[in-house]
Amino acid sequence: MAAEGIAWIGPGGALDRDSPAVVALPAGPLVCDPARLYDLAVPARLGAALEQALADPAVRAVVLDLAVASPAAAAPGDLLAAEAGFAALAARIAAAPKPVVALIAGPVAGPLAALALAAALRVAAPGGQIGFPEIGLGLVPGAGATQRAARLAGAGPGLAVLMSGAMLPAAGAQAAGLIEMVTQAAAPAACAAAAALASAREGGAPLPFARDPQRGLADPAGFLAAVAAARARLSGPLPAPGQIVDCVEAALLLPEAGGLALERAVFEMLAASPEALALCALAAAEARAWEAASAAPLPGPVAMAGAPDLAADLLAGGVPVRLLGPDVAALRALLEAIAARQEAAVREGQMTEPARDAAWDRLSATTDAASLADCRVGLGAGELLVGALLPGAVLVPLDGETRLQRHRPPEGPPLLELVLPEGAQADVGLGLARATGRVPLIGRGAAPGAGLLAALRHAAGDLLLLGASPAQVDVALWGFGLAEGPFEAMDRAGLDPSSGLAAQLVAGGRTGRARGRGFLAWPGGAARGQDDPAVLELIAEERRAQGLAQPGQGMGPAEICRLTLAALANAGARMLSAGIVASAGDIDLAAGAALGFPRHRGGPMHWAGASGGRTGLLAMRNALKAQASALPPDMAGFWTPDPLWDRLIREGRRF
Description:
By secondary structure, the protein is an alpha/beta fold. It has 28 helices and 19 strands. The chain has three domains: about 5-270, 2-enoyl-CoA Hydratase, Chain A, domain 1 (Alpha-Beta Complex), CATH 3.90.226; about 295-445, Rossmann fold; about 450-650, N-(1-d-carboxylethyl)-l-norvaline Dehydrogenase, domain 2 (Orthogonal Bundle). Strands 2-1-3-4-6-9 form a six-stranded mixed β-sheet, with helices on both faces. The protein has a five-stranded parallel β-sheet with strand order 12-11-10-13-14. A three-stranded mixed β-sheet has the order 5-7-8. The longest helix has 22 residues, at about 275-295. The model is unreliable at about 15-25 and about 70-75 (pLDDT under 50).
């Protein structure tokens, strides 16, 4: 027993008769694997241990430790069955004949957080966190979370935590009314509270510590006002946020059983939605990538020539960095930039002063290349480092062709895209990602993001020859959800005078948005470009030169999106076949980072398999073939399907 008469159920789901201890959790980006979040084995293990404790006459109360330090990877399973298992366990906890106290000693998320809300009392360590990431998966929080959060905290605080998707620190959760006690000695405090609750229940006295579990419903008018305010703020294409608001409203309007039934029905509906399937697939890819990174060893001393921001990230992650510069002045500039980055992190609360000092102690600087001979990894200017490292060391240039990109997509965790040279071990890239706290995206010999961007621009250019206009392409892809249309993006960056139609535009003074005209016209600094008649005439001339028929009505948005997505998926298939990336999920991660591909669509590889049901891959392969046949032979190669399409179709598989 953790204390006399108190059963301790640890994160593994077994009765723990040793002294409880707070679990230390590893740092890293917030990734959410739906297979781990809703793992059917977890409620089964916890439920069995709970029943054992409740059946033991020597047990007066139960402490349920919900922090999971390093859960084993879960196989993709039945999401609905897992949610039902958690819901049944939450109901059992809420109705248990003996007090159940939830201990929140670290991050407790999703259905485990729902179990905490079902307990008689919640005790947290200062480092504890509670959160509901389901909204990021296109789902409503399950296992009764929407009902119990609203009843405990009210609509305003309840909706804030349910709809943010973020982890709420223990102090904030206590202020919101979701946690009753926060203390440094959380484990013994949870045992003491459980014993006190048991004594009060056995003696028929009022329960100490615990507050009314329906306290959030005490002000119906305020509750409904908070619901109305949340509903007025709803925007975007996802149904889950509005459904969460509806479920929270039901906590006031329906009996508890009715609210729980509504939540369950909504969870089932959303779990089958295209948005949730896409978001879950993307989240699973992120989780797999981060799991590989978190298991990789940190690299030894890293030689760097330039990139002070990256150097600061590596130092903060525990990696020794040795700066190489051509002269003292260049080194001084690098050191000052790193110091400024660290001071900013301290000011913003992202780093403590002792952590800054420890990171600085891991930094050294030199102009003597010979002193870097023991470094096995080099990042930066190739001409400085190439002669400094021993044979076998991995050199990743950061100049010229982009070899490393730090992406922070609008949604989802930050990524580190790294192109490893031939022969380099993947552990090098994974260790760098772990040190910087970013999900790794490893390319072999080529950058996945750059490859997708090139494919998008190539496809967009070919669509002009087949009847679309630049504005039609951009508008169609905006409607699909891309952050920026390809022609808008090229105009913003400035046109490349060495390629195709862009070269003709540059020769005519149409260099991009800064000049007010490129592929599109930008009159008066307009927020969106519009088709330029002169550019449309150039496109028509190019069609005639290629022997292509002049279009009638142009090309509709659906056709533009279908062909563009097919081209991106084909580019991804080629990268898979060439061994540039390890999985289709890596392509989808690259699409989000490099193209602003809408997260709720998953990515081009997920889209290729999910759209059109069982025949989706076949239909997309046929669209590629038709496009290839519509273009001159010297242009058809880009659209010719990679052989991987036929193999997957033959085997009944998806990317």
